[in-house]
Amino acid sequence: MLSDFFNPKTAAIIGASSNPKKFGHTILKNFIEDFKGETFAVNPNEKEVLNKKCYASVQDIKKGVDLAVVAVPPSFSNNVVAECVKKKVGAVVLITAGYREIGGEGIGREEELKNLIAGTKTRIIGPNCLGIYDTSSCVNTMFLPEYKLQRPPAGKIAFISQSGALGSAVLDWAATEHIGLSKFISYGNRADVDEVDLLEYLRKDRNTESIILYIEGPRDGRALMQAIKNTVKTKPVVILKAGRSDAGQKAAISHTGSLAGSYDVFEGAMKQAGAILCNNMEDMFDYGRVLAYQPRLKGKKIGIVTNGGGFGILCTDACIRHGLELAEFSKETVGSILPVMPKNYSQIRNPLDLIGDATADRYAAALNALIKDRNVDGIIALSLLQTSTLGPEITDVLLDANSKSNKPIVFAATGGEYTQILLRTLEKDGLPTYPSPERAVKAMSVLAR
């Protein structure tokens, strides 16, 4: 059971420090400010940290401890884990580096760590990791201060990353873009808990609708295939695999001690299992968002709505390129849209160009018609938000359409600060947004797989 990692009632921060530059200071501060359970500080060299009594050892805490976060030097870390095992701590997040990833003595240290927990009920995430950020329980083991790394809001995407550095950068970006997460898990060297364990847990997590996995190399390829097969029955899994080249594979070994293996073999196995593979960080969250917030495409016929002809043409080309088709609008759709268009305008066809003087009301009429049109399986809305006739009320129209549609809808707009503000508003309320027609189409195409 991994529930003690994500829903503990008590947590001990081992290595708590009064020095703001120390990892133990930031982690303890996180727990004191946000954690919904009870927090204990542990450091034999401190009497009090952040107004919290400091215990010399986790074993001195009279209450049971569900979660221990260990941020001490590698020369002490295994001894601390041994004390956690004696205390019967259910979950340990081992932040400390200096294990298998450094080779030599680090390999021996990691083998000793595995032996310490063998046959016990103590589970470990790490070593060499950032650990966990859970937006529901507010478990936050990240040692990077919030003024440097913003925390994203609550959402429906779980992000598992073997790399803490990549994961932290993505978190900061997601927070800026108002992309919500249910959980972030950096698991590092996976001396114990690995991607298979995490997928099995998240498969049943009520707060998660889609799962993104960044991996450098699976520990057990067959087990990962089975975990994905089990998971995709109810939740999609998006994978970004690093270490595709020979040089990248060597880098993976020195980073988390992973053997990256042949990418062609990995790609074939993961596709067979039902995962969606992506090629870069951009696609990773583009896919994860649309899968978390939109229903699946029941067909491949797309309706395009725009106030800029060029956007519509680019979107059309992208649809054909990514295996989608343009829907033919029904007579009812044409009849309901014509009255809101300028006089003498007669070309109601796909892509639907509402022309440059389009208002939010014109968008509303078009979107409502396409939602009702049985010939349309999905809708891509595009806007030049800079026009004088289109105000911020367009966000209300788009969100209203999204809330009552049983078809997937995505939105794309290109522009500066004003455009970004509106995009973030839509993203915050569950409508996936993209900065270009191409990325909107790629996201929509994932719903057809």
Could you give a short account of the major beta sheet? 7 strands, mixed
Radius of gyration: 25 Å
| Shape, principal axes of CA atoms | elongated
What would you call the structural class?
A: alpha/beta
Briefly, what CATH class of the largest domain? Alpha Beta
Give the mean pLDDT.
93
Oligomer kind: single chain
Helicity, in percent?
25-40%
Q: Could you say how many structural domains there are in total?
A: 3
Secondary structure: number of strands: 19
Task: Identify low-pLDDT runs.
Answer: none
Distance between the termini: 32 Å
Give me the number of helical elements: 16
CATH T-level fold name of the largest domain: Rossmann fold
Biggest sheet strand order reads: 3-4-2-1-5-6-7
CATH architecture of the largest domain: 3-Layer(aba) Sandwich
CATH homologous superfamily descriptor of the largest domain:
Succinyl-CoA synthetase domains
Q: Roughly what fraction of the amino acids lie in strands?
A: 15-25%
What's the short story on this structure?
With 449 residues, the protein is an alpha/beta fold.
Report on the architecture of this protein.
The structure is a single chain. The protein is of the alpha/beta class and 449 residues long. It is built from 16 helices and 19 strands. A hairpin with a 2-residue loop joins strand 3 and strand 4. Helix 7 runs parallel beside helix 9 (263-273). The mean pLDDT is 93.
Question: Topology, please?
Answer:
Layout: H1 3-6, E1 10-14, H2 23-34, E2 38-42, E3 48-49, E4 52-55, E5 67-70, H3 74-87, E6 91-94, H4 105-117, E7 123-125, E8 131-134, E9 154-161, H5 164-176, E10 181-186, H6 195-202, E11 210-215, H7 221-231, E12 237-241, H8 246-256, H9 263-273, E13 276-278, H10 281-293, E14 301-306, H11 309-321, E15 325-326, H12 331-337, E16 352-353, H13 360-372, E17 378-383, H14 394-404, E18 409-413, H15 417-428, E19 433-434, H16 437-446
Parallel strand pairs: 1-2, 1-5, 2-4, 5-6, 6-7, 9-10, 9-11, 11-12, 12-13, 14-15, 14-16, 14-17, 17-18, 18-19
Antiparallel strand pairs: 3-4, 8-10
